[in-house]
Amino acid sequence: MSREQLIQTLWGDNRGKVILLLIIILLIGAVQLWRGVWVETKLESSHRELQKVQADLDSIQQRIADGGGAQISGVAEDLEYFYKIVPSRSGLGSFIGRLYSYAKAAEIDIDRISYTAKPVKETSLLGYQLVFTVTGSYAQVKKFIHQLENSPSLLILDKISLAGNRQADEEIVNLQIQLQTFFKAAGP
């Protein structure tokens, strides 16, 4: 049997299988080609992104070397603005007065406010930790907290604890608050 007869026999008896095999080979080739193009595109995109990040890093390192880091992203300006908005130490009285006005607006009472002062390391700030309790209905306490959160003062709520009890058909909430606020350590 010659080569041509062998090919004719295979083609004649197995035409569908040969066509299917060719289609599968073409599909595998197309998928491999597509994957290669997709991977290459992704690789190029990642490479460009890496080059951009490296250029940004080089720029930042150069700015640090040139200006000691003070010029990066306006940090110096932000810090200067921050120190401008922090009130002087004499502002503690008005801050406590504001707490009492928030309580009055929420129609609740503050029993007493205790506080301790502590210098903040490596700054010219003095931190005051205040602890106090307010008692009222849930709506009143919620209003007080809302006013506290929207206060123009620089403060951090360190700890809040709620305890509820029922008194004469009314739910009463005791809210203990521990917060920190900051003032300039030096005079006015």
Mean pLDDT, to the nearest integer, reads: 83
What gross morphology would you assign?
Answer: elongated
CATH superfamily of the largest domain: Ribosomal protein S6/Translation elongation factor EF1B
**So what's the oligomer here?**
single chain
Strand content: 25-35%
Overall description:
There is one protein chain. With 188 residues, this protein is an alpha+beta fold. It has two domains: 61 residues; 98 residues, Alpha-Beta Plaits (2-Layer Sandwich), CATH 3.30.70. Helices cover 54% and strands 27% of the residues. The protein is built from five helices and four strands. The protein has a four-stranded antiparallel sheet with strand order 1-2-4-3. α4 packs antiparallel against α5. The radius of gyration is 36 Å and the shape is elongated. The model has no long low-confidence stretch (mean pLDDT 83).
Task: Give the secondary structure arrangement, pairings included.
Blueprint (H helix, E strand, L loop, with lengths): L2 H11 L1 H53 L7 H11 L6 H14 L3 E11 L5 E12 L1 H12 L5 E13 L2 E15 L4
Antiparallel strand pairs: 1-2, 2-4, 3-4
Keyphrases for this structure?
alpha+beta; Alpha-Beta Plaits; 2 domains; four-stranded antiparallel beta sheet; 54% helix; 27% strand
